[in-house]
Amino acid sequence: MRMRRALNQLFPTNHKHVDVTGPTGDSPWAQMALLEHYIRKCRLKDAVRADLLAGDVTGQWNLYLDWTKSYRRVTEVISQPPTLESEDGIEAQDTAGDEEFELKTSDVIDEGPEIVPFATEDLAVYPPTTNSIEEAEATCIRLRMSSDKVQQLIDEGVFVGVSATELMERLAKPDNSREKHNPPKRRTSDAGVRTEGTYKYALIFEAHTDLDLGEGVKEPVYVYYAGQNEILGIIRNPRWSGRRPVRSAPIERVQGSFFGISKIEPVKYLQWNLNDYWNMGQDSAQYALLPIVMTDPLAQPNYQSMVMGLAAVWLADPNKTKFAQFPALWKDAIGLCQAIKAQIMESLEVTEAMMPAQGKGRKNAAQMGAMAQQEQLVIIDYAKRYEEVMLNPLLEDLFELDRQFRTKELTVATMGETGTQKRLQEIPPQAFGERYFFRWSGTAYVMGMQRMQQMIAWMNVLRGVPPQLLNGRKLDVTPILEFGTEQIFGVDVAPRILIDERNLFTIDPEEENLMMHNGLDAIVHEADEDAQHIQSHQRGAVMTGDPVGKFRAHIMEHMKAMQTKLQKQMGAQQPQGMPGVPGGAGPGVAGTPRLGAQPSMPRPQQPPGAIHPDHIQDAMAGPR
């Protein structure tokens, strides 16, 4: 439950996880869309889910980052005019003939980042008292490679002087310095999947440190070895930034130690005792459900006929036959287990409000609000810690890897500002020289949703402030409207609610006719000459026949636009009311009634569906 709630804080919505600040102060939408694409492609949410769960057990978060490239062959059907060959051997396409279909095969490159969570016992850091991975003198991680992966590294020149077959056979032999058990096979068995035979892999150690490669200066290198005295290869750090591919941080910082303390370690004995007490209670329950019959064998010689059964007849004296009940120790066991369970929950910072079934007893609004605030305080602090030490550096790593290794254009979905439609954009390889600041916006999004109600109320206050009290400032509520619409309806629907007309331009009616003839939608702009456009579209509809009705629909939109413009002109000519008179001037004018006080139907104090102040789940708000 703790992991799920933290994951919801980190990934509150789709396609909106990154906040980027560029050198000009504007939001670089292309770079944001690129990082969002990599977040979806490498399935970062699944990796974070496993990392959060393992972090509570080991006390350490661990992620390994690398750039992968693979090739696959794609076959597609293409249509083209038939090819004719003249007597001179010149080939030409017959555009008048029917098109022919043929299969075309091409090679496609799949490249991108790969993020993998790994176990804490597979990581070594020297010295263990360092505060971060980059400050350590050396780090080492265990890698389990298949025969194909070993052969790939041999072909790339990483492993020198060894063959894949020789390495796999030599590492398959038991050794005290190698693993005695197969962790991948054991985890597969725990999941209920049985495997036949032995899963062979090469246990390779990848160390990251600084070495002098003969130039008199130490530089970052990767050292691969298969044992204490068996080095497979040494290469320079392939990343231009010089950073190490490991991201690791403790859940709670311990002074003088790189690794954190497990959340499970202090309560593991309680868990074992709870399991023992519960089993003892279940054993007691079996005896408690069976009655004990006591009788005098001398007075009841037929006691062997006293058998439990439906409508049984016992030939016995009822005064000399008694029933006894085994002590119901299972009740005491359940109470003891409940007490231990509560202690474990308190130690793991799991509140009662986090559990699917809350405790007994009726709670008032103040108690529910206090429980919700306590829950949010723990989870938000937990999620913010993960954002700070894991996700923010990870965003920088993703951008650096893309800027270094990607060589082809990539087509991604770009959201853009609120008011612009989502579209596909080709992003060329990134150029160096530009600096960006990346920040994960998961918890910030959730906190914004909690403050949405207060923002709406404060916006009404701002609307009522007279212009002379702004002291030269200008009030623009557009950012509030954009933020609220995007937070409530999401980044997919918000651009269709608030339409930014700055991104819409008037188009020549003849070009619109060509667009509609090819099946594209043409948008009516406010600056269009509606009468001229209607005449041109009517001629285009006659020429093309308008088979799908796009011309008719577009002409109706122009007619609606003409009526709207006429109504605006008539409304502007009507005289305005006097200040101070109900229904007169707008808010902000001296003598005008306060907002909501003009003659109308009574309105509620809060809009429908508003959250009660005692129920607002905001870690920054205290109980009333």
Automatic annotation (TrEMBL):
Residues 569-579 have a biased composition (Low complexity). Residues 170-192, 565-624 are annotated as: Disordered. Residues 170-182 have a biased composition (Basic and acidic residues). It comes from the Bacteria. Residues 580-589 have a biased composition (Gly residues). This is Uncharacterized protein.
